[in-house]
Amino acid sequence: MNLQQFRFLREVIRRNFNLTQAANHLHTSQPGISKAIMEFESELGVQIFERHGKRIRGLTRPGADVAKIVERINQEIENLRRLSEDYAQHDAGRLVIACTHTQARYALPKVIPMFRQQFPKVHLSLAEGSPTQIAEMVLNDEADVGMATETLAKTPGLVSLACYHWEHVLVCHADHPLYAIYRSEGAVGLQDLVCYPIVTYDTAFSGRRQIDQVFSDHDLKPDIVLAAVDSDVIKTYVDLGLGVGIIASVAFDPLHDSPLCSVPVGHLFGRQTARLAVRQGAFLRDFVRTFIRMMTRQEETDALNKLLSQNNPD
């Protein structure tokens, strides 16, 4: 029984039992992984995987219990590596932040220059994806922290806390009828919105589910003519006249986004919360802890201390 077998077993499970994908990720051979797993099963005296011929179909009942233990072992090995690096070079290393495009483009630039000034030897990587992909990257140790509005708080194995709150805004040209309604009445309503084509986020991003739910609750069917994962893409098509846009307020800048105008619609779709998450039980290096503090508002101090204590027990 050795650490290489633990790594092979975990990667096969993570790759949905695809030996080829596991071998490619680990830069080894498929026969080598198969041999290591069979030797591991022989040493344990239990069959870990259900097989159909040479193909692995899933975990056996004892295999599921073995997998949980192996995952914990691999996590602790990773914690040992991070701990040793933290003591050897506490101010150097690599910080991988999994985030949505909106976080990368609009939220992180407010913090990263300050972080870099304090930790010039830390190399940063931004891994953009959907909230679901972000959660998976953090769970699989492909990212140190994740940032998104959806999914993170509800994902088992992650601990998260609020970074900031935001609301949706409507974006359109100044001569659009909806902007005239806003200027004259101070607000637009759902009935006003359904009269025009809408460009907004994909269903996995930035409160889109909340938008859909609000329309559904009022038995209204919006004409969403284009859905995108990127606020800048949405604004581009609004500027082209495809429809009015609904985006995160943090993604609109009156100076840079002219000639578009924004209309607050938080009263329609509610307040959203951007969250930061780390893997439960992960050892957080000093610069990771500092980054978390920088991204956390002052009123979240208690939540931050709780998160850090969960991941760095005394």
Protein architecture, described:
- The protein has 14 helices and eleven strands.
- Strand 7 (198-201), helix 10 and strand 8 (224-228) form a beta-alpha-beta unit.
- It is elongated, with a radius of gyration of 24 Å.
- It folds into three domains: 3-84, Winged helix-like DNA-binding domain superfamily/Winged helix DNA-binding domain (Arc Repressor Mutant, subunit A), CATH 1.10.10; 86-164 and 273-311, Periplasmic binding protein-like II (D-Maltodextrin-Binding Protein, domain 2), CATH 3.40.190.10; 165-272, Periplasmic binding protein-like II (D-Maltodextrin-Binding Protein, domain 2), CATH 3.40.190.10.
- Strands 3, 4, 5, 6, 7, 8, 9, 10 and 11 form a nine-stranded mixed sheet that branches. Strands 1-2 form a two-stranded antiparallel sheet.
- It has 314 residues and is an alpha/beta fold.
- Helices cover 46% and strands 23% of the residues.
- It has helices spanning 3-14, 19-26, 30-44, 61-88, 101-107, 112-118, 131-139, 177-185, 190-193, 208-217, 231-239, 266-269, 286-295, 301-311, and strands at residues 49-52, 55-59, 92-99, 121-128, 145-148, 158-173, 198-201, 224-228, 244-248, 260-264, 271-279.
Fold topology:
Blueprint (H helix, E strand, L loop, with lengths): L2 H12 L4 H8 L3 H15 L4 E4 L2 E5 L1 H28 L3 E8 L1 H7 L4 H7 L2 E8 L2 H9 L5 E4 L9 E16 L3 H9 L4 H4 L4 E4 L6 H10 L6 E5 L2 H9 L4 E5 L11 E5 L1 H4 L1 E9 L6 H10 L5 H11 L3
Parallel strand pairs: 3-4, 3-5, 7-8, 7-9
Antiparallel strand pairs: 1-2, 5-11, 6-9, 6-10, 6-11
Helix pairs in contact: 1-2, 1-3, 1-4, 2-3
